[in-house]
């Protein structure tokens, strides 16, 4: 039986080029700056988790970081491999890295994981970080999970819910958490997002 995650990945496989066209222009400079300052000047290893077609991977490569790009969609990996040869087809629940990365960057990707699976995925992310490593994630704010008009599954979170989940992961310490308006206002005028930076202790 196909899971909601598999259904979403299949949709990304079929629409990778159009997704790239819709999202490549989004300006995340403020987000990059906000997260990178927690690295204290280190130009280390970055895991771009749920990398999509490679917008963020390209930014980090151009900024002097060593980047590993991971996605569960074959079509997205085909696209990101044009900007980063170090790319890998892998579902989040199969992450197998240990103490390897200075930064795990997960922009608008963990929201496709069903809530009952999110804590185990967060533990795998923690394990992939070096001590003192930084984890960034962004998720949609909301009270109800939903399937959008394209057929993609989304888990949404309230601020206190997200804080509680992150704090429940042994070794995680929340450094910053915030709310922000969508950067894609022409399609998500009412959508508010949650962002968080977490440090592995």
Residues in helix, %: 25-40%
Distance between the termini: 39 Å
Structural class: alpha/beta
The name of the CATH superfamily reads Vaccinia Virus protein VP39
What is the averaged pLDDT score? 94
Domain Methyltransferase: 46-133
GO molecular function, one term: methyltransferase activity
GO biological process, one term: methylation
Protein name: Methyltransferase domain-containing protein
SSE diagram, text form:
Elements: H1 4-14, H2 16-23, H3 29-36, E1 45-49, H4 55-62, E2 66-71, H5 74-80, E3 87-89, E4 101-107, H6 115-128, E5 129-140, E6 146-147, E7 153-154, H7 159-167, E8 172-181, E9 192-200
Parallel strand pairs: 1-2, 1-4, 2-3, 4-5
Antiparallel strand pairs: 5-9, 6-7, 8-9
GO molecular function: methyltransferase activity
Protein name: Methyltransferase domain-containing protein
Domain Methyltransferase: 46-133
Annotation keywords:
201 residues; alpha/beta; Rossmann fold; 7-stranded mixed sheet; two-stranded antiparallel sheet; 9 strands; globular
Could you write a compact summary of the structure shown?
The protein has helices at residues 4-14, 16-23, 29-36, 55-62, 74-80, 115-128, 159-167; strands at 45-49, 66-71, 87-89, 101-107, 129-140, 146-147, 153-154, 172-181, 192-200. The chain has 201 residues and is an alpha/beta fold. Strand 6 and strand 7 form a beta hairpin.
